[in-house]
Design goal:
The chain contains three helices and nine strands, in the order βαβαβββαββββ. The protein is of the alpha/beta class. It has a six-stranded mixed β-sheet with strand order 4-3-2-5-6-7. A three-stranded antiparallel β-sheet has the order 1-9-8, with helices on one face. β5, α3 and β6 form a beta-alpha-beta unit. α1 packs across α2. The longest helix has 18 residues. Bound molecules: inosinic acid and magnesium ion.
Length: 187
């Protein structure tokens, strides 16, 4: 059997640590939106694991929807344009929208997404991200709910990928540089 941690340099956050933090964030969301309904939007595919754990613990009327946007493609280099590969199934006018992302890196993806979604007249939009890499930010953008700050290293697991691999690892891990040595991230 293949050792699925063979390309991993180190485990940064265990699934258990992530679960604990997710419970705290869900409680915070439950408090912040008391008496209101929320539409929680998972950004496919990186956010799915975090999203699934999170929504189960939000004690409100929750609607769920999904969007897919491309930014990175098959590379660790950020591109500034996003493309909507899958849009929301329903209008968001008058709704409290919470966007759930895997990681805020340069911030371009969320910045473009927020710009688009605000044109649809929601009541509010907040950003909830499992991870934040503030040292890489290129545009002004902050998550409203952030799980963990991570250093400037390429991470995989718990939904996050490199070339579509490692998403199913139950921890957030730092990938060995040798894996992407011909595709060095541009900072
Ligand atoms: P941004 O537009 O630079 O903020 O990039 C956001 C997207 O880039 C995330 O949704 C991830 O899909 C991807 N990304 C950024 N950093 C990492 C990383 O360290 N590991 C895996 N994916 C990443
Ligand atoms: Mg990705």
């Amino acid at each position: 059997m293949k050792d699925r941690y063979a390309d991993i340099k180190k485990v940064l956050l265990t699934g258990e640590e992530i679960s604990k933090r997710t419970t705290e964030i869900a409680a915070e969301i439950t408090r912040d939106y008391a008496g209101e309904e929320v539409l929680v939007v998972a950004i496919l595919r990186g956010a799915v694991m975090f999203f699934a754990e999170l929504v189960k613990q939000i004690d409100l009327d929750v609607r769920m929807d999904f969007m897919a946007v491309s930014s990175y493609g098959a590379s660790t280099v950020s591109s500034k344009e996003i493309k909507i590969n899958k849009d929301l199934a329903q209008p968001i006018e008058g709704l409290n929208v919470i966007i759930v992302e895997d990681i805020i890196d340069t911030g371009h993806t969320l910045k473009s997404l927020l710009r688009l979604l605000w044109t649809r007249n929601p009541k509010s939009i907040k950003v909830c991200a499992l991870l934040d890499k503030p040292s890489r930010r290129e545009v002004e953008l902050e998550g409203d709910y952030v799980g963990f700050e991570v250093p400037n290293e390429f991470v995989v697991g718990y939904g996050l990928d490199y070339n579509e691999k490692y998403r199913n690892l139950p921890d957030v891990c730092v990938l060995k540089e040798s894996v992407y040595k011909n595709d060095i991230p541009v900072v």
